[in-house]
Amino acid sequence: MANSFSAIKIFCSATTLKTHSPHYDSLCVERCVSIRHPKASDATAFLQAVQESRSLHGRWSQPPNTPAKFKAYLERYALEMHRSFLVINRKDRQLAGVININNIIRGHFHSASLGYYAFAGHEGRGRMRTALQLVLLYVFDRLRLHRLEANIQPGNIASIALAKGAGFVYEGYSKRFLKIAGRWRDHERWALLREDFRARKIPLKIT
User: Fold this and answer.
1) Burial (CB count within 10 angstroms: exposed 0-12, middle 13-18, buried 19+), residue 1
2) How far is CA 21 from the centre of its chain?
3) C-alpha torsion 6→11→17→23, nearest 10
4) What's the pLDDT score for residue 204?
5) CA-to-CA dists, residue 55 to 40, 119, 124, 143, 205, angstroms
6) Distances in Å between the alpha carbon of 158 and those of 42, 68, 124?
7) d(CA 96, CA 49)
8) How do beta strands 147-152 and 111-118 pair?
9) What separation in angstroms does the CA of 2 have from each of 5, 23, 26, 79, 175?
10) What string of H, E and C letters represents the secondary structure of the chain?
11) Whole-structure pTM over 0.70, yes or no?
């Protein structure tokens, strides 16, 4: 898939990776995980991970679960207004989860929305927490967005904890906000601003 993303260099503590084609190389490595954009050859592993995670995802999320849907997912996230990151467990190179940046709006907004889900066997191990910090670094330092919003179902305690732990602040409640698993579902609205992220002094930088 063609894209116009520029080459980037990311520094993560003592580990430096230079990427010339961000859709195919690891973008950043830190501690237990790396992140990179998805590619066509990920289809088998991705779909297997989704299949094995059906009970974990339940009514919280609906990842692509067929080859056709995976192809559509790749096409969507090849567009300039979206980004998707696979979370890779460094120890065994398995897919640990996915973090998506959707609907990037420039102009007077410079904002986007955030979505994420772990795969079964990788939840509750700190991998998504670490990967989210890397994605936030990319969002605020590379894309230079001003605001990132996460809309989360009220009963999704783990996802709320992940957002809250990353510095997101509760802003409000949206009734029947998204249709998931055949039903319109209420969501809490959480948001993080660039200046608040930078104030947390995460020991990573991007150039």
Assistant:
1) exposed
2) 18
3) -40
4) 57
5) 25, 10, 15, 34, 37
6) 26, 29, 8
7) 9
8) parallel
9) 9, 9, 18, 9, 38
10) CCCCCCCEEEEECCEEEEECCCCCCEEEEECCEEEECCCHHHHHHHHHHHHHCHHHHCCCCCCCCCHHHHHHHHHHCCCCCCEEEEEEECCCCCEEEEEEEEEEECCCCCEEEEEEEECCCCCCCCHHHHHHHHHHHHHHHHCCCCEEEEEECCCCHHHHHHHHHCCCEEEEEEEEEEEECCEEEEEEEEEEEHHHHHHCCCCEEEC
11) yes
Q: Reply yes or no on whether the pLDDT at 20 is more than 50.
A: no
Residue pointed to by tokens 């679960």: 65
Dihedral (Cα; 173, 116, 43, 26), 10-degree rounding: 150
A 10 A CB-CB count for 206 gives 18
pLDDT in tens, 84-143: 999 999 888 999 999 999 999 999 999 999 999 999 989 888 899 999 999 999 999 999
Decide if 176 contacts 140 (C-beta within 8 A).
Answer: no
Please report which confidence band the pLDDT of residue 15 belongs to, taking 50, 70 and 90 as the band edges. very low
Q: Which two tokens stand for residue 36?
A: 């990179």
Q: Give the model's pLDDT for residue 202.
A: 66
Q: Say how many residues make up the chain.
A: 207
Structure tokens at 181: 């698993």
